[in-house]
Amino acid sequence: MTKRISIIVTVNDAREEDLMIPLSSINNQLGIDFRDVEVILVDNGQYRLRDVNQYRLLKNLDIRYENPDTVLSWEEAFEYGVKSASGDYVMFMGPDGLLNQTSVLQTFSITADQNPNADVLTGLVLEQDMTKTRTTQYKVGRDFMTARGRWFKRSFLSQYGIQWQAQGKYSDEMYSRLVNSLAATDIEANEITYARFMSRDVRSAVMAPVPSITTTEQITMWGRFLKLLKEIDPKPYADEFAKLCVRYYTLRKQVGDPEQDLVDKSFCMLVEQNASVWSNVQVLVAHLQMTDKAPQAPWNKEQQVFEQYIQALSKVADPAESTPN
Q1: Percentage of the chain modeled with pLDDT above 70
Q2: What confidence score (pLDDT) does residue 139 get?
Q3: Cβ partners under 8 Å of residue 95, min gap 6
Q4: Alpha-carbon distance 27 to 159, whole Å?
Q5: CA 97 to chain centre
Q6: Contacts of 65 by beta carbon, 8 Å cutoff, 6+ apart
Q7: CA separation (Å) from 96 to 20, 107, 112, 163, 164?
Q8: How does pLDDT run across 264-319, given as a tens digit for each residue?
Q9: By CB neighbour count within 10 A (0-12 exposed, 13-18 middle, 19+ buried), where does 65 fall?
Q10: What is the tens place of the pLDDT at every residue in 153-190?
Q11: Alpha carbons 259 and 270: distance in angstroms, whole number
Q12: In angstroms, what CA-CA distances link 120 with 26, 150, 155, 159, 185?
């Protein structure tokens, strides 16, 4: 029987009692027909769960326990779950995640009914963190660079062959960039959908927030993302490359010494690898200069420096420009 939503939860060496938190948050949902919901629990870690029968206490849930023969990364576990799913949509959860409110699935289901052609539904995400003084901080917002708190239409993922790939700290960002670039429609749901809770016993690696400062590892991921996107669809590939070039002007300012030189060299290599579509960067910059008059936009606030930055990248993309006649 086809379900409305398949919620894929990766165990990642969490214990039974810890998994009760994400699973209970699904079980406690209101206003939905649970016959439309399946939970796929992928036991991917080095240590197996000892007693999955205790989850029978969650009377509302149709839990399918998947026990792969080999240890899988959390990215492979998600992909394993997608291949096992029967839902029209899939949602991903880590062992440190939960549905933040009891109305999440109802809100998403209604939104899906109202927008049957939507490839993606995106809710709000609540982040929990702790300062050096052991003070808990919370932040709520919409984050399009994570799969947390989003529904993905399974037919859309299949159409474009979008799959989870291990990219270190940036696996979640790469997956999300592919989705964002290829989705025809992404509908925003006005609901705090997903929250990450803190526990000394649960590894926080699954869909963990990425470092705020750009690294060479992240730029390497951008290169792989662009290469894969180019193979899937050249049009959004050229557009995404142009956006990255414009965005990097601001991102590079956050990188301090001595890393900045290394990070800049890594980005220049990215430009060289994608030099064939450099003209798209020039078109985007010209468009932004004409249409975006916001005072804080770098092409307005720092016009000369921004133009020098674009010219420098242009010489990287086309070395002939820097060769004297």
Answers
A1: 95
A2: 80
A3: 9, 10, 11, 12, 14, 18, 19, 22, 202, 203, 206
A4: 31
A5: 15
A6: 41, 43, 49, 52
A7: 10, 22, 26, 22, 19
A8: 999 999 999 999 999 999 999 999 999 999 999 999 999 999 999 999 999 999 87
A9: middle
A10: 999 999 999 999 999 999 999 999 999 999 999 999 99
A11: 17
A12: 20, 7, 11, 14, 7
| Count of Cβ atoms closer than 10 Å to residue 75 Cβ | 21
In angstroms, the CA 2 to CA 62 distance is 13
Other beta carbons less than 10 A from residue 124's beta carbon: 18
Cα dihedral value 44, 48, 49, 52, nearest 10: 80
Residue for token digits 């808990």? Answer: 136
Q: What is the pLDDT of residue 325?
A: 47
Model confidence pLDDT, tens digit, residues 116-132? 999 999 999 998 776 67
Distance, CA of 195 to CA of 148 (rounded, Å):
8
Amino acid residing at 188: E
Reading the block at residue 60, the tokens are: 């509302």
- pLDDT tens column, 141-156: 889 999 999 999 999 9
Cite the DSSP H helix spans in the chain. 16-27, 74-84, 104-114, 154-160, 171-182, 216-232, 234-251, 259-273, 278-291, 298-301, 303-317
The C-alpha atoms of residue 69 and residue 113 are separated, in whole angstroms, by 38
Token duo for residue 150 = 């989003």
Whether the predicted model's global pTM rises above the 0.90 cut? yes
Structure tokens at 292: 């975006």
Residue type, 197: F
Contacts of 258 (CB under 8 A, 6+ apart): none
Tell me the two tokens of residue 227.
Answer: 């290469």
Contact assessment for residue 252 and residue 264, using Cβ atoms and an 8 Å cutoff: yes
Whether the Cβ atoms of residue 72 and residue 78 lie closer than 8 Å to each other = no
